[in-house]
């Protein structure tokens, strides 16, 4: 008799990497409690992931050895292609010596450009972490390690700095007929489709980074079976990218982290803060409407701002002196402003119905964010009255939680337990069992090889008899 188990996955994140145990789903005496129904709503046709604990003994699942409490006992094994430097650190003006493919990060680390280039730099930090894993004294203390044999890997990592490529090389410069960014994407697609790893898996176990909404626009339709690491799904059809298949990663915040924060409810004089572009393509209507609704409200700061003319410094000062920070959809559903708010300990007020958030299968954003539907925010008086109704005790509780989760959104080298790099690896680990299931199902009939005999097409069973 076969015993069928639930298809729900055991949580494979390391609880020790989180600042506060209460951030995770609660468990009572080994019996799992799934997240409440509000966290199981559909997203553009896909279901959100729910982490559960099997409450049983250690099991082997998706290539990981899991302990009885669901913690990872072994790191995620990643095979990284040795792409030509023109795809990665060469975009940072790193000059390889001889046949070098990677910089020796023990002696020098190529720096990433700041400001707008920095906020979409996920590929840079993940690649550095994989390179660093080769010099780790104790690999089992890491969330992910690089392996040199692809057959040992849980996932295949594609180290193309696509966001940087878009930001720096998306313009066509004569005599070129195509931009360098487009040329790199074309070369990447050709390279991947010629690799045995791609052919075996159909690309399903490949990790492709396209964090900037406009990066990989030319290649994404050809690489869609892969796991995309994105900032949101604003410019992707559901059959190309969705929460079941892909990973949402945070932006790297532009505002410096707020250290030695001694503020409290009474010391923060601004109730609600927004500074940024008011007229945007996608979310322009919402921003414009909210500007007219809020610009004359007492203790509300709502003004135009940009990174020029000390814009980041001014925004930092404004967020540090405000209780709530308004986060409205712009050109896409997400923006860096949310992560600036978290780094500034300014409780985010999110007005973006279609936003997807990093690690939402682990974090309950309701504990430190205010969500307002677009349609409600457009009603006169609704948004400001909602914010004014929040008591000092309620705000303080959200503010304290905000400071606890802040480290989960920090990109840094070397990476540390519970930072953004490690959290993204954990998010990818959650995808591995589903990916392996799809690959295994796709190979069911691989042993039936078509061959010709006397002009007839015959299917021959090449499987070995047991």
Automatic annotation (TrEMBL):
Sequence ranges assigned to domain Exostosin GT47 in this UniProt record: 73-386
MF annotations from Gene Ontology: glycosyltransferase activity
Location of the protein in the cell: Golgi apparatus membrane
Keywords, sorted A to Z: Glycosyltransferase, Golgi apparatus, Signal-anchor, Transferase, Transmembrane
Gene Ontology CC: one annotated term: Golgi membrane
Record flagged with keyword Mitochondrion: no
Presence of the UniProt keyword Transferase in the record: yes
Membrane topology (UniProt): Single-pass type II membrane protein
Signal peptide: none
Family: Belongs to the glycosyltransferase 47 family.
UniProt-recorded name of the protein: NADH:cytochrome B5 reductase 1 isoform 1
């Amino acid at each position: 008799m076969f015993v069928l188990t639930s298809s729900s996955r055991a949580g494979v994140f390391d609880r020790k990497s989180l600042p506060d145990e209460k951030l995770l789903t609660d468990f009572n005496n080994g019996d799992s409690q799934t997240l409440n129904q509000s966290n199981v709503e559909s997203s553009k046709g896909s279901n959100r992931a729910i982490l559960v604990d099997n409450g049983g003994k250690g099991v082997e699942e998706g290539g990981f050895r899991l302990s009885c409490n669901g913690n990872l006992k072994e790191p995620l094994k990643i095979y990284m292609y040795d792409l030509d430097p023109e795809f990665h650190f060469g975009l940072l003006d790193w000059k390889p010596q001889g046949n070098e493919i990677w910089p020796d990060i023990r002696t020098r680390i190529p720096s990433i450009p700041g400001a707008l280039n920095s906020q979409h730099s996920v590929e840079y930090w993940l690649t550095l972490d994989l390179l660093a894993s080769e010099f780790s004294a104790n690999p089992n203390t890491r969330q992910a390690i690089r392996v040199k044999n692809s057959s040992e890997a849980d996932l295949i990592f594609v180290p193309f700095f696509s966001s940087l490529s878009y930001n720096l090389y998306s313009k066509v410069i004569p005599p070129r007929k195509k931009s360098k960014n487009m040329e790199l994407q074309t070369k990447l697609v050709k390279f991947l489709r010629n690799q045995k790893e791609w052919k075996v898996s159909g690309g399903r176990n490949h990790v492709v980074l396209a964090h900037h909404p406009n990066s990989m626009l030319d290649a994404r339709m050809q690489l869609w079976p892969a796991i995309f690491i994105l900032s949101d799904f604003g410019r992707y059809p559901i059959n190309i990218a969705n929460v079941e298949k892909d990973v949402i990663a945070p932006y790297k915040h532009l505002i410096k982290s707020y250290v030695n924060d001694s503020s409290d409810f009474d010391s923060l004089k601004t109730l609600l803060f927004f500074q940024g572009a008011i007229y945007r393509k996608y979310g322009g209507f919402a921003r414009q409407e909210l500007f007219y609704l809020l610009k004359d409200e007492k203790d509300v700061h709502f003004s135009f701002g940009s990174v020029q003319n000390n814009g980041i410094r001014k925004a930092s000062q404004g967020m540090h002196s405000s209780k709530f920070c308004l986060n409205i959809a712009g050109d896409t559903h997400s923006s860096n402003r949310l992560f600036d708010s978290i780094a500034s300990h300014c409780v985010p007020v999110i007005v973006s119905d279609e936003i997807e958030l990093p690690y939402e299968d682990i974090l309950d954003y309701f504990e430190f964010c205010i969500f307002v539907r677009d349609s409600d925010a457009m009603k006169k008086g609704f948004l400001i009255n909602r914010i004014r109704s929040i008591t000092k005790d309620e705000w303080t509780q959200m503010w304290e939680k905000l400071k606890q989760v802040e480290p989960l959104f920090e990109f840094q080298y070397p990476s540390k337990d519970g930072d953004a790099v490690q959290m993204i690896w954990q998010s990818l680990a959650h995808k591995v069992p589903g990916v392996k299931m799809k690959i295994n199902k796709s190979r069911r009939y691989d042993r039936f090889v078509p061959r010709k005999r006397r002009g007839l097409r015959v299917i021959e069973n090449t499987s070995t008899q047991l």
